[in-house]
Amino acid sequence: MKNDFSKGSVVGNILSIALPMTLAQLINILYNVVDRMYIGHIPGADTLPLTGLGLCMPIISAVIAFSNLFGMGGAPLCSIARGKGNVEEAEKIMGTSFTLLLITGVVLTVVGLGFKRPLLYAFGASDATYPYANSYLTIYLLGNLFVLTSLGLNSFINAQGFGRVGMMTTLIGAILNIILDPVFIFVLHMGIQGAAIATVISQAASAVWTFTFLTGKKTILRIRPASMRLEWRRVREIVMLGTSGFIMSITNSIVQVVCNATLSHYGGDLYVGVMTVLNSIREITIMPVSGINNGAQPVISFNYGAGENGRIRTAIRFTAAGCIVYTFLIWGLLYLFPALFIKIFNDDARLLEAGIPSMHLFFFGFFMMALQFSGQTVFQALGKAKYAIFFSILRKVIIVTPLTVLLPLVVKPAVNGVFLAEAISNFIGGAACFCTMLYVTKKELGIRILSRSKD
Q1: Which one of 214, 246, 346, 410 has the fewest CB atoms closer than 10 angstroms to its CB?
Q2: Under 8 Å CB-to-CB from 391, ≥6 apart: which residues?
Q3: Rounded Cα distance, 353 and 345, in Å
């Protein structure tokens, strides 16, 4: 069997997937962030185009949520089945996920185009920012099937251990986007519409790459017409496990909506722009954490299916420790050099003045996010859907959303309450998720993660 994660170094197995995946994540972040960088520097447009793009982010997050639902839901199950030696079942899980991605892509396009205007105004759009948001979102929704396919199917490429191929999925789209963005935006003078067109073309190229590989001869598991038939048992299992990743993305969408609406009320379009920049910086800085955890997930899942609990313990310890150290160091850089990061997206004096203190609050205790990521990864890798779903809901829905609404009533200036809500949720949600993961792995697998002695 190729890519047998029950053999060799656990750390080596993780890094063999995580390093190309981390590079792919970096490229993917550039893929998304390049739009904001170029849009934020459109001559004579002030911060309005950037703010308009920020208003689209909740809907974009919702599209990504569905790719996580079927991609992150199917990939761990696929790895577990492969770890047990059941290749036929693994292919049927992947085929089912692909069918669900296709159906969902069509539905989201129709619904999104039908309700985009009321949604954008509900998310905090003003008459000044709506034209920019509408221009970008209309084109993006027409191509969201490519987004779903490339992101969702890439999870199955990485789950089989083809980290370099998975990296190429993102690399192809990112390079195209980086090249096409300035052409459409500045050379052809298409502005924010040009950014959307570049994004759709780039995602289409990535989608073709993933589909071609997973139907070719070099993959272990192949998409076949016979495996794409929907069966309720598999659909239910995929959705149950993928609900965690779905909720993480959809609750990001909810939080973005609440934050934008609250900031629009207390601070106007300027602070919606600040939040767009801060979310972009977070995407960049959290990328290695996401890469390492995504690399660890198939290794943990495979060894869980193979009954190798000692290797699971090693994988969890390496992943958690590495991510905590990294996020602690990044927190220091963000605190010491906030203006440097903000200027990547826009150097407007008003944005800098408002953004620096907001950034200090937003990223306070950033290292606690590593605990949330590590805990969630383990729950998903072990197929513990209920735990993964609960902690996705806990941080975003139960903690940060109410705090975003309530803190501005008691914190002055009110906008500071919105940014502080994120920091508080990181501490509470991260600690609760990680401690529960330690308890579950000890109780159900007999693994003591923090103990020095061997299990």
Answers
A1: 410
A2: 244, 372, 375, 376, 379, 429, 432, 433, 436
A3: 14
> What residues contact 374, with CB distance under 8 A and at least 6 apart?
293, 316, 319, 320, 323, 434, 437
Share of the chain above pLDDT 90, in %: 19
Cα angle, residue 452 at apex, residues 447 and 455 outer, rounded to 5°: 35
Give the integer Cα–Cα distance in Å for 452 and 417.
Answer: 41
Structure tokens, 307: 């009954």
Q: Do the beta carbons of residue 314 and residue 448 sit within 8 Å?
A: no
pLDDT digits (tens, 9 = 90+) for 131-142: 888 988 999 999
| Res. 43 pLDDT band, cuts 50 70 90 | low
Burial 265-286 (b: 16+ CB within 10 A, else e): eebebbbbbbbbbbbbbbbbbb
Q: Distance of alpha carbon 372 from its chain centroid, rounded?
A: 13
* Closest to 105 in 3D by CA, of 71, 73, 147: 147
The single-letter code of the amino acid at 383 is G
Lowest mean pLDDT among 20-29, 136-145, 195-204, 432-441: 20-29
Q: Which residues neighbour 179 within 8 Å (Cβ) at sequence distance 6 or greater? A: none
State how far the Cα of 137 lies from the Cα of 76, in Å rounded to an integer: 32
End-to-end CA gap in the chain: 28
Residue that the structure tokens 């997937």 belong to: 17
Residue 357's H or E segment, with its range, is helix 349-362
Q: Which two tokens stand for residue 171?
A: 């690399």
DSSP state of 228: G
Residue 309, pLDDT above cutoff 50: yes
Tokens 């052409």, located at residue = 183
pLDDT in tens, 157-173: 887 878 778 778 878 88
pTM of the model: 0.65
Output the six-digit token pair for 65. 């949520």
Model confidence at 29, in pLDDT bands (50, 70, 90)? low
